[in-house]
Structures are given as C-alpha cells and as structure tokens.
Amino acid sequence: MKTIRNVLILVDEADTIKEVGRQLASYMAPVHVAIVDAADFAATDLLPADAYFLGCQEPHPARFCEVERVLKGINLAGRPCGLFTLSSKSAIEYLRSISQDAELAVFSEPLFFESLKPVDRAPKVKAWVHAVLGRS
Fold first, then answer.
1. Rounded to whole angstroms, how far apart are CA atoms 46 and 73?
2. What is the DSSP string of the chain?
3. What is 6-132's CATH number?
4. What would the pLDDT profile of 118-136 be if each residue is shown by its tens digit?
5. What is the mean pLDDT of residues 103-116?
6. 74, 76, 66, 59: which is closest to 36 by C-alpha?
7. pLDDT (average), residues 69-77
8. What's the rounded Cα separation, in Å, for the pair 50 and 79?
9. Is the pTM of this model over 0.85?
10. Which among 4, 80, 87, 125 has most CB atoms closer than 10 A?
C-alpha cells in the first residue's frame, strides 16, 4: 500500500461543509492536507494528492462544475476517497457519480456528519478518516 503524504479535501461554498473539512484535516497529522473550495479548484490540485475527501451540502453545487469536468477525464485509479455531507443522501449519490470516471477507490461508507451525536463526533470522525486512509 502506498504511503499517503498529501491529501486534498474539496468542499463546496457552504461554511458548515468547510468546517467539517477542517475537522477531517485535524485527524490526518502528519500528512499534508490542502482544503480547497471548489470555486478555487484547478485541475493541477488533483495529481499531487495521494487521497481525497469530497464534501458538499447539497447535490450539484454550482461551484463543482470544474471538479466534475476534470474528474471525467483523469485517471486516479485506486487512490482512496472519502465522501461527506451534513445529511443529504442525494449529495453523496452525486459525489459518488462524479468520482466514478476517475476510478477513485471510494470508501463504501460516507460520512453523514449531522447524524453523529455531538458527544460521539470526534472519535467517530477520526475513525472514519483513518478507515478511508487505510490506517488502523
């Protein structure tokens, strides 16, 4: 298994999703993590990353157009990918669909952040992040 040194977290414009992205990043030390708003995304952001986390509040955020376009034409086969949202199953279905052509190794269990009890969030989010990255 390849060592993960760089992680890209792509988020939509919702402040709540950006905050979830920051929480995910806090459990990845010593890995280098870049959190990128989809509005600021460039195709060159993808290749340096060894793993990805994609998050949006609702399906089809307007700012994900470039992300969609690039993922249709790039091969990231086998690289780990976690999908997250606050509570929208349709957002997860959307993220799963845009990541298919890139052949990412999408983790089977998405993170529905709001479904976690506040008291359980930290340990469950940490465990989920480590599972996506293949850590024990």
1. 12
2. -PPP-EEEEEE-S-HHHHHHHHHHHTTSTTSEEEEEEGGG--GGGTTT-SEEEEE-SSSS-GGGHHHHHHHHT---TT-EEEEEESS-HHHHHHHHHHHTTTT-EE-SS-EEGGGS-HHHHHHHHHHHHHHHTT--
3. 3.40.50.360
4. 999 999 999 999 999 986 4
5. 95
6. 66
7. 93
8. 6
9. yes
10. 80
